[in-house]
Amino acid sequence: MCVARVLTALPPLQALGSLCSPWAAPRVGPLPPAPAMVRISKPKTFQAYLDDCHRRYSCAHCRAHLANHDDLISKSFQGSQGRAYLFNSVVNVGCGPAEERVLLTGLHAVADIHCENCKTTLGWKYEQAFESSQKYKEGKYIIELNHMIKDNGWD
Ligand SMILES: [Zn+2]
């Protein structure tokens, strides 16, 4: 004869969401265009400041803000001096002249980018990709890991 086992109530699932701070909230649906930076007119250390609520990357040499973690597209890039990250957009960054360069993934038109505050070359911008599989990189920025520090809100 079967005895129906009465299962004791399982412990409630951890509410994982509550462990995340607000910046980690997943983006659901289209967001209203939030101002990503505040421009200041007076000359100060940096030209642009990123939102204080976000994890961000800053110049390792002068701490100028460079990019929001939200704008990180990929961590699997190779720079000339090691690993590099691909970003959607950056701030406080100046651009050199574009030139054609053969990279690991083929021929691209790229322009070196530098920190506008301390003038250190940080990486490059993809101006144009010539292979369709690489087109997603156009207009995006590479910053080498050894020129960035994680700033604000990281564990
Ligand atoms: Zn700098």
UniProtKB/TrEMBL annotation:
- Keywords assigned: Metal-binding, Signal, Zinc
- Which residues does the UniProt record annotate as the domain Yippee? 55-152
Q: Which GO terms describe its biological process?
A: positive regulation of cellular senescence
Query: Any keyword RNA-binding?
Result: no
Please give the family membership noted in the entry.
Answer: Belongs to the yippee family.
* Domain of life of the native organism: Eukaryota
Show the PROSITE patterns listed in the entry: YIPPEE
Signal peptide location: 1-17
> Pfam families recorded for this chain?
Yippee-Mis18 (PF03226)
Record-level Gene Ontology MF annotations: metal ion binding
Protein known as: Protein yippee-like
Q: InterPro entries under this entry? A: Yippee, Yippee/Mis18/Cereblon, Yippee_fam
To which species is this protein native? Monodon monoceros (Narwhal)
